[in-house]
Amino acid sequence: MRSFAQISEATKFYSEMERLPSDGVAALASSAVEVVSNSPDIMRRFAEELMRRLAVDMEALKSGSVDCAGENHDWLLALTNCATDSIDTTSTLSLVDRDFWNSEPADRYLQAQREAIARGVTIRRLFLVADSTDLNDDLRRLGQEQAELGIETRVVVRTQLPQNVRRGLVDEFIVFDEATCYEIKQDQLHVNTSTRVRAHEDYVRVRTKRFAELWDAGVPTPGAGNPGR
Predict the structure, then answer these.
(1) Cα distances (angstroms) measured from residue 186 to each of 70, 106, 113, 190, 191
(2) Which of 27, 115, 166, 168 is 20–30 Å from 20 (CA)?
(3) Phi and psi of 18, rounded to 5°?
C-alpha cells in the first residue's frame, strides 16, 4: 500500500510540474546541476543557498504569504513585470522615500512601470504627505515626471483627510491586479525592516478598498497635469 501511495504522490507531483513554465524549470535544473558539478566549492555552496532560499519562498507562498528581511526590490520588479491589469500604489514622502526616487532602483522600477503601461496596465500612485508644507517643488517634479510616463497620480495630505477616512491605516502598500499586496514595514526611524507579499483574498480586498477611499479623498498632484497615455 505504501508503494502505491508513493506512486500516487509522484504522479501528482509530475502532473503539477507540467503546469510550470517548462523553459524556466528546465533551465533552473540544468544550471543547478552544472554549477554543482563544475564550480569551485564556494560557488557550489552559494548555488545551494540560492536554491534553499527559493524552496523556502515557494513553501511560504503555498499559504498565500511570503516575507523577507529588508526591502526586496527584486520582488517589486517581478510583480510589476507580472501585472496584467492594474497597479495601485501608495508612496509616503519622508526623507528616506525622497531619496529613493533619486536612486538607481527607482529608475529600474519606473522603467518596469513604463513597460507595464505599454502592455495596457493602469497604474495609479497616491502620494501620502504629512501636511501642506510637503506640497513643494520635489512633489511637483515627481508628479510631472510620473505623469509623463503615463502614471496617474494624486496626493493626500494626512491632516486634511476627512475624519471617517483618517481613522483607517495610512501607510505604504501596492496592490497588483487587485489580487496581491506588496508591503514594506518600517521601524520608528523610517528604516525599511521587512517586505511582505500577501495574496489572501480578504486581506487584499481590505487593501483595495482602502486605496479607493484614499484615492477618492486625494487631489491632483501639483504640476502633474494629465498622464500622457
Answers:
(1) 9, 18, 24, 5, 5
(2) 115
(3) -65, -15
pLDDT in tens, 58-100: 899 999 999 998 889 999 999 999 999 999 999 887 644 667 8
Burial (0-12, 13-18, 19+ Cβ within 10 Å), 159: exposed
Nine-digit cell string for 223: 504640476
Q: Are 166 and 213 in contact (CB under 8 A)?
A: no
Does residue 119 lie in a domain region? yes
Domain count, the chain: 2
pTM: 0.81
Cα separation, 140 vs 225, in Å, equals 10
Would you state the cell numbers that stand for residue 130, as one nine-digit string? 504629512
Per-residue cell: 25: 524549470
| 161 and 49, same domain (yes or no) | no
For cell 498632484, name the residue. 221
Identify the domain containing residue 44 by its residue range: 2-61
Q: pLDDT tens digit string along 167-177?
A: 766 678 999 99
Task: Kindly give the pairing relationship between strand 192-198 and strand 65-69.
Answer: antiparallel
DSSP code of residue 39: S
- As a whole-number percent, the residues of the chain with pLDDT over 70 amount to 79
Cβ neighbours, 10 Å, residue 96 = 13
39 and 105 fall within a common domain: no
